[in-house]
Amino acid sequence: MNVMNALLNLQHFYGWFNGSVSLMVCVSLLPVVLHFANRWELHDVPGKLKPHAVPTPRLGGVAMGSALLAGISVGGTGLFSPAWLVFLALALVWIVGALDDLTNLPAGLRFAAQLVAGFLVAQTQWRMTVSGNALLDSLLTCLFVVIFVNAFNFFDGADGLVAGVASVASFGYVVVYSSRAPSVGAAISWAMLGTCVGFLLFNFPPARIFMGDSGSTVLGFLLAFLGLDFYRVHHAIGTHWLLPIAFAGLPLLDLCLAVVRRVRKRVSPFLGDRQHFYDLLQQRGWSPRPIAIGSYLATAGFVLLGWLSISLTPGIAFLAIAMAFVSLTVTAVHLGSLRR
Fold first, then answer.
1. What does the pLDDT read at residue 48?
2. Is there a domain that residue 294 lies in?
3. How many CA atoms are closer than 13 Å to the CA of 93, on its beta-carbon side?
């Protein structure tokens, strides 16, 4: 018992340390990125799919990626050596995202890179073990990663939205990991929390800088990994499989509606539009701050449902989370999310 308490105390120390390092690195690097983005005119220019009013520096994901790496690294190489393929996949997602921010890569190339990242994760102990067939489980792992990456990429369309929602979701995982010994998942959740909070200091409406694909795709990838890490520990029985889906419920729901909407229009699912829920709220007169805060509160509700799914009976947990998804879906459809 004393050994377990000592391990948990060690995790709490490393957790705070991971998060603090990430926050400080992010806050320190963002002014530097802002300076060079303005100097080299690396701006996100307003347009048909860009609701902001003035050109805004992008590439905030460069500072976020560096902050995440710094925060995760302080955990020690011994803790992360089994996950080197995961970090290789993370680097791939980050680099491709940064190149897309600079040069607008083709959607097919970005999708291929995401599949490769998912395949790399599927070669590790974090691969899904659902079907018992190695190939099918690898494909499911790839699909899981790609869905999360694109969900958070699609969701990055308003000031402070992705960083705040990811902050709430990562805090949810921090609490989940608080009763376990030090792990990769615990370190990543703390590093994400510190990085996202640091970025929000510059991105909360009105945003001074955008994270770009190099930020949103990385956050989606890491939340997918945290979900897989949770499944790896709690894969046996119960409603634990609901927790990662609930934690990312808002971006996942927005992604599903976007794909259905674009397929109905017979256009590519990767073709942007202005019918995401945050766009529809803006069209109804909502300002960016209420949209951001409302999204944080909705995500907090999903996180609470995710926590409850661990202890509730399977039927009640599924019903509660399903009702939350249905109510938000009905609201989004009423706003015009599926309008042709």
1. 75
2. no
3. 34
